[in-house]
Amino acid sequence: MPIRTVLLGAGPGAAYFAAGIERLKMGEIDNYGIPFGNLFKSYRPEDIQIVGVFEVDNKKIGLDMHSVTSKLLNENNVPNSLKDIEILRGLHCKSLAGLPIDATGLDDIIGDPNIAIKEFISLLDKLKPDVIVNIITTEKQVQVNNESEFIRLASSCNGGASLTYAYAAAEYSRLYNKVSFINLTPPLLANSPGIVSYYEKVGGLIFGDDAATGATPLTADLLEHMAERNRKVSSVVQFNIGGNMDFLSLTEPERNKSKENTKGSIVNDILGYDAPHYIKPTGFLEPLGDKKFIAMHIEYKSFGGYTDEIVVTGRINDKANLGGVMASVIPITKALIDRGYKGTSPSVNRFFMKKPGPLGTRNVSRIIAYNELIKELKSWDII
């Protein structure tokens, strides 16, 4: 049975995911990089069917995912099945303001955010998604503490596109079909009490926030290693430099602060104290493209007061890794919707997200989160 999936954003993350899923279906690639890929029972990554993609970049709207993916990945052998997926106009809410993108959303054209949201919901009704995945460009963080604040900010487009998309998906759940909304970007959606409670009320599921795909999960596991051995961490440095639009957007202080907040939350959560740390994206260099440069330095005291260091460097294709996360979390959340779950799931978020919701959920190392989630997935008969 297909998992009808809508993507919000037609950037590199969507391109790597869409091409990879179709190649997986055709048997051209193995399921490497998909957590739990060999264990799924009720739904599998191959069941994912992309039924629609929404975008506000005028250069992409009206095209199909085949042409956009071919250009973004610079490949000639992109699966032809992507020609059937049209890129539709989504909601803008000034989310790309200040970036060199000619962007127009339904809200810009219609002029009234409320009417634009209703139009978007009607488009969702035609596509009938089970899962909606948010992978738009990083926005500033807005935490929503109650349902009335959520409705007010989202319906007026004053909290950013991610917030408004989350509201539209919740309304779609209320009116038509229970849906899972997966927020793989930094805005605090699953960490906003007002949003989670609203999803509980309408019977939908929301997951987030900010996908853990590259250096952050590795940092978390190294910090767990330090905590388990009672080593005193003196300082933690982790930074990334990349060359895609996401990194260009992070040159804006407010957007960078959003990413810094979700990445830096692991230190105190795992160690139990707030060791001095610098964990955030630091630069944009276009030739790096999607394959970002990462560096990490952890200094710590061991027995006898002696100081040791761990230094890690690497090149990581964040967007390809993101595709593997999507291919895993989509079947899980669809299975949970089928089982009547609503609101959110801390165990799912702890494994897949940098800032796991709901608010107050502690970050743990991904090794611990993996073992916890394995137990829960088995209890839910998902794996």
Short descriptors:
single chain, 383 residues, Rossmann fold, Dihydrodipicolinate Reductase, domain 2, 2 domains, six-stranded parallel beta sheet, four-stranded mixed beta sheet, 18% strand
What global shape is seen? globular
CATH architectural type of the largest domain: 3-Layer(aba) Sandwich
- Biggest sheet: strands side by side, in what order? 3-2-1-4-5-6
Report mean pLDDT, rounded to a whole number: 93
Global structural class: alpha/beta
Topology of this structure?
Blueprint: E1 3-8, H1 12-25, E2 48-55, H2 65-73, E3 87-89, H3 106-110, H4 113-127, E4 131-134, H5 147-155, H6 161-175, E5 180-183, H7 193-202, E6 205-207, H8 215-228, E7 232-242, H9 245-249, H10 253-264, H11 266-271, E8 277-284, E9 291-301, E10 307-317, H12 318-338, H13 346-352, H14 366-379
Parallel strand pairs: 1-2, 1-4, 2-3, 4-5, 5-6, 7-8
Antiparallel strand pairs: 7-9, 9-10
Description:
This protein is globular. Strands 3-2-1-4-5-6 form a 6-stranded parallel β-sheet, sandwiched between helices. Helix content is 41%, strand content 18%. By secondary structure, it is α/β, with parallel strands linked by helices. 52% of the residues are buried. The model has no long low-confidence stretch (mean pLDDT 93).
